Amino acid sequence: MAVDNGLLAPLAIFIIAGAYYFLSAQRIINEDFVDASVRQMVGLMYISDVGFNLVASRLSKSKRKKTASKKAPTGTPGLVLNLLPLTDLVGLVCAFEAIRLAGSGFHQTVGGASIPISCLLNVLITGKVFSTGQLTGISIVILGLAVKAKALLDSNDDDDAAGFPAVAVAHVLVSCVGYALRGIAMEYLSDNGVDGRTMTMRMGVTGVAAWGAYTLAFTARDFGAKVIEPFSAASTRVGVIASFSLYASHALSRGIASGTITQIVSLGGATVLSLAQVTRASIIILLSSVAFCGVDERQCLDGYGIASAALVIAGSAYYGNAKSFEEELDDLIDPDVADEMDSVIGEAEEILEELVDLYVEEHGSEPTEDEFLAWTESLKRAGAEAERKVSKKAATPKKATPAKKPKKAAPAKAKETKSKAKETTTARRRSARK
């Protein structure tokens, strides 16, 4: 799948804005603005998602024409939409817990496992088939992750550390599963007509509600000690304006980055999103080494780290430019046959669009998949019934009207005899008078 031109912009924004919000999150965590148990980063990210989407929705409504309102999805799409926030919440909470336990560099490196995990889940859940080129790119990514993992293990042995951080690894892997499932769910919902803003708002509102409940249960009773006192000390140390700027820019970058996720999924799929996350992670590893190595040795980058980041980025680029399995099949098909197939598909899409427009005219809103299928089935039944009635009417015999007997024409010879007789009679009458 060569990268779609429409995919380049959201990918670039996702990587750049996402890298900043992770680095700014690391800075906020390092400055100890609040106690770690508050889990402020989770709340901040969900609040920024909701706020950003509300502003974007308000701006877009003032610019676009009024369209038919969309009904909430039902059936399987509705169930998937309700489960979507759970996958995102699991991914986000476990990711920041891993950062707290082992550092951002460790999380970003092991988090590259989201690529093979996403591929595996795609195969198991959706039956997706990957091309040789895509598998090659994924293999390069895995090689890069293996290099960094070995470096971390060797570092633990050299420092005589207390074993490998298994708990942190478990949190990262669970986070990868959550994010991979989120990508698959978003791809499915996008294919079923659920717009990105609806998905983002559902995740954001659910996340804010969950974090609010957690805060009431575990933070509210010690709010002064966990929030007010440490925040006051940290803002004094960092500076009030600098603290505000740090939080505001972090929230803005998060909102911008999250707004591109649904675009990436709808244009490129869940695996492309995972590859973008791995690419972003490699950039974060490089930048975090420059920014935080002096205060946190876990962020320092060595030769193994550089090689790992290079391999991961190279593998991601290779995957992004590789043809998909479907495109490889298209290359094997005769061009004339392929053009004919494209023409048939184009006509079918036009008919489908006309049917959707007709549904909107009748019902005043766009249909869900289940509603559209039920409606088309009713049209089929109505058409079959009308055809049956027409056939029955045509097969019913009509009563024959008896034809009038035509008058027999007088024979030609009879006419001539009659004429001659008339002439003879006239002649006799004249001779008698004489």
TrEMBL record:
<feature type="transmembrane region" description="Helical">
    <location>
        <begin position="132"/>
        <end position="149"/>
    </location>
</feature>
<feature type="transmembrane region" description="Helical">
    <location>
        <begin position="41"/>
        <end position="59"/>
    </location>
</feature>
<keyword id="KW-1133">Transmembrane helix</keyword>
<feature type="transmembrane region" description="Helical">
    <location>
        <begin position="161"/>
        <end position="181"/>
    </location>
</feature>
<dbReference type="InterPro" id="IPR037185">
    <property type="entry name" value="EmrE-like"/>
</dbReference>
<feature type="transmembrane region" description="Helical">
    <location>
        <begin position="79"/>
        <end position="99"/>
    </location>
</feature>
<feature type="region of interest" description="Disordered">
    <location>
        <begin position="386"/>
        <end position="434"/>
    </location>
</feature>
<feature type="transmembrane region" description="Helical">
    <location>
        <begin position="7"/>
        <end position="29"/>
    </location>
</feature>
<protein>
    <recommendedName>
        <fullName>Drug/Metabolite transporter superfamily</fullName>
    </recommendedName>
</protein>
<keyword id="KW-0812">Transmembrane</keyword>
<feature type="compositionally biased region" description="Basic residues">
    <location>
        <begin position="390"/>
        <end position="410"/>
    </location>
</feature>
<keyword id="KW-0472">Membrane</keyword>
<feature type="compositionally biased region" description="Basic and acidic residues">
    <location>
        <begin position="413"/>
        <end position="426"/>
    </location>
</feature>
